[in-house]
Structure formats: C-alpha cells, structure tokens
Amino acid sequence: DAEPDLAGRRVVISAGGTREAIDPVRFLGNHSSGRQGYALARTAAARGADVTLVAANVSLPDPAGVRLVRVGSAVELAEAMEAERGGADALVMTAAVADFRPVTSAASKIKKSGAAPAPIELVENPDILAGLVESRKKERSGQTIVGFAAETDDVIDNGRAKLTRKGCDLLVVNEVGAGKAFGTDDNKATVLGADGTVVDIPTGPKEDLADRVWDLVVARLPDRAS
Ligand code: PMT
C-alpha cells in the first residue's frame, strides 16, 4: 500500500477538456480524455488525501473515494476551481482548457444556407491557473499550485516561458500530438520548478507520473502546526 503521506491534506485536481458551445449541438474542444487527471486523483486518494476532482467532459469510471464535480466549459471550470481552492494544500490543473470561446452560442442549430459559412468570432477565456495564483497572493497560504503544459514544439523552452507567465510553483511539461499524452495509458514529462529545479519523469503509466508529481508536492508541504 502507498505511504499515507497526504493524510490530512486536501487536494483539488482538474481533469479533461473544456467544451465551448458554438450552438446546441457543436463545440470547440480538445483531445483530453481525463486519464492523467484521474490518475492524479486516484494516487492522491491512495496516499490518504481528501480529493476533489473537477472533471470537464470525462467519460471514465468515477474514481473511488474521490469527490467529483462535473463541469463543461472553461468558465464553469474557472468557477468550480475558485469555489474549491480555499483550504486546499495543493491545486493541480491537468485539464486542457480552451484559450478561446465563441462570443455567442447560437440558440438553434446553425444551418447550411448555401452562402459562405459565417465566421465564428472568438473571445479569450480566463486563464484559470494564473487566476488561482492571483487568488493565493491575497492570503497567507502554504498552498502548492501545479500546472501542466501541453507542448508540440520547443517543449522545454515553451514550458519555461509558460511557468514564468502563469506563476505556478511546478509546471509538468509533456509533449502532445502524434499519439503522445492525449488519451494514452503512458506519459512522460519534465517538471520545472519556479525555484529552478528540473525533474525528468521517464515514460511509464500515468499513475507513476502522478506519484512522482505528488512526491514533489509532498516535499513542498509546510510542516503542520502541532
Ligand atoms: O487527459 P489525457 O488524455 O490523459 O491527456 C493529458 C493532458 C495531455 C491533457 C495533460 O497531461 C496536459 O498536458 N494538460 C494540460 C493541457 C493544457 O491545457 O495545457 P496548456 O499548455 O494549454 O495550458 C497550461 C496550463 O494552464 C494548464 O495547467 C492548463 O490547465 C492551464 N490553463 C490553460 C488555459 C486557460 N485558459 N486556463 C488555464 O488554467
């Protein structure tokens, strides 16, 4: 059995991919299956944590012993994370969040008219991870905030820039595309720390990667007042 090194700790994890409605039947989405986030939830629960899993459009079996909150869009995910963040020892953003959403969602299914298709006008979604970092600044908190970065090119350089931009403590950088990370059983990553640390996690089951991420979170946990 796993060491209960997260006993008495509360963690909030987002998983899956947001869907941004175009009309009642169509959306802008991405290929996240939720597997990496669910693996983080299962492993945290096995290590004794009180786990809240915020799932965006995931169709995997509910993990045992985990509180599940379901959301659809990026705005709903932002609201759920903001509602859950208080008192959490760690927040982990594994969800693939749409950076943009359609300005309006049509009330009825958009029909072909024979004319040229109307363009879909987009507006930027909130950056949820950066928002969680901002919220933490307003309080005295030992909370650890972990982001993930899905990159297709210049993986480490882009990861470093993202770590600085988002301001989280740890950024788990994984390569995506061409059969990598999205929907797979295995994953590999490099974890960049705001303090300059770099930890490579070799290819293996998403559970193993999740356990290595929790090891890094546990190492950052402030000692509990006795
Ligand atoms: O679900 P699986 O099929 O198992 O696949 C796992 C995964 C590839 C989705 C996962 O490992 C992963 O990389 N998740 C992050 C996906 C992502 O949105 O990456 P990003 O580089 O676009 O965003 C960086 C970070 O900012 C992420 O923590 C993301 O949750 C967050 N973000 C992004 C945009 C936004 N508007 N708000 C955010 O909070």
From TrEMBL:
<comment type="similarity">
    <text>In the C-terminal section; belongs to the PPC synthetase family.</text>
</comment>
<feature type="binding site">
    <location>
        <begin position="126"/>
        <end position="129"/>
    </location>
    <ligand>
        <name>CTP</name>
    </ligand>
</feature>
<feature type="binding site">
    <location>
        <position position="166"/>
    </location>
    <ligand>
        <name>CTP</name>
    </ligand>
</feature>
<comment type="similarity">
    <text>In the N-terminal section; belongs to the HFCD (homo-oligomeric flavin containing Cys decarboxylase) superfamily.</text>
</comment>
<keyword id="KW-0460">Magnesium</keyword>
<keyword id="KW-0479">Metal-binding</keyword>
<feature type="domain" description="DNA/pantothenate metabolism flavoprotein C-terminal">
    <location>
        <begin position="6"/>
        <end position="218"/>
    </location>
</feature>
<comment type="function">
    <text>Catalyzes two steps in the biosynthesis of coenzyme A. In the first step cysteine is conjugated to 4'-phosphopantothenate to form 4-phosphopantothenoylcysteine, in the latter compound is decarboxylated to form 4'-phosphopantotheine.</text>
</comment>
<feature type="region of interest" description="Phosphopantothenate--cysteine ligase">
    <location>
        <begin position="11"/>
        <end position="226"/>
    </location>
</feature>
<comment type="pathway">
    <text>Cofactor biosynthesis; coenzyme A biosynthesis; CoA from (R)-pantothenate: step 3/5.</text>
</comment>
<keyword id="KW-0210">Decarboxylase</keyword>
<comment type="pathway">
    <text>Cofactor biosynthesis; coenzyme A biosynthesis; CoA from (R)-pantothenate: step 2/5.</text>
</comment>
<dbReference type="GO" id="GO:0015941">
    <property type="term" value="P:pantothenate catabolic process"/>
</dbReference>
<protein>
    <recommendedName>
        <fullName>Coenzyme A biosynthesis bifunctional protein CoaBC</fullName>
        <ecNumber>4.1.1.36</ecNumber>
        <ecNumber>6.3.2.5</ecNumber>
    </recommendedName>
</protein>
<feature type="binding site">
    <location>
        <position position="148"/>
    </location>
    <ligand>
        <name>CTP</name>
    </ligand>
</feature>
<dbReference type="GO" id="GO:0010181">
    <property type="term" value="F:FMN binding"/>
</dbReference>
<dbReference type="GO" id="GO:0015937">
    <property type="term" value="P:coenzyme A biosynthetic process"/>
</dbReference>
<dbReference type="GO" id="GO:0004633">
    <property type="term" value="F:phosphopantothenoylcysteine decarboxylase activity"/>
</dbReference>
<keyword id="KW-0511">Multifunctional enzyme</keyword>
<keyword id="KW-0285">Flavoprotein</keyword>
<keyword id="KW-0288">FMN</keyword>
<comment type="function">
    <text>Catalyzes two sequential steps in the biosynthesis of coenzyme A. In the first step cysteine is conjugated to 4'-phosphopantothenate to form 4-phosphopantothenoylcysteine. In the second step the latter compound is decarboxylated to form 4'-phosphopantotheine.</text>
</comment>
<feature type="binding site">
    <location>
        <position position="109"/>
    </location>
    <ligand>
        <name>CTP</name>
    </ligand>
</feature>
<feature type="binding site">
    <location>
        <position position="162"/>
    </location>
    <ligand>
        <name>CTP</name>
    </ligand>
</feature>
<dbReference type="GO" id="GO:0071513">
    <property type="term" value="C:phosphopantothenoylcysteine decarboxylase complex"/>
</dbReference>
<feature type="binding site">
    <location>
        <position position="99"/>
    </location>
    <ligand>
        <name>CTP</name>
    </ligand>
</feature>
<keyword id="KW-0436">Ligase</keyword>
<dbReference type="GO" id="GO:0046872">
    <property type="term" value="F:metal ion binding"/>
</dbReference>
<keyword id="KW-0456">Lyase</keyword>
<dbReference type="GO" id="GO:0004632">
    <property type="term" value="F:phosphopantothenate--cysteine ligase activity"/>
</dbReference>
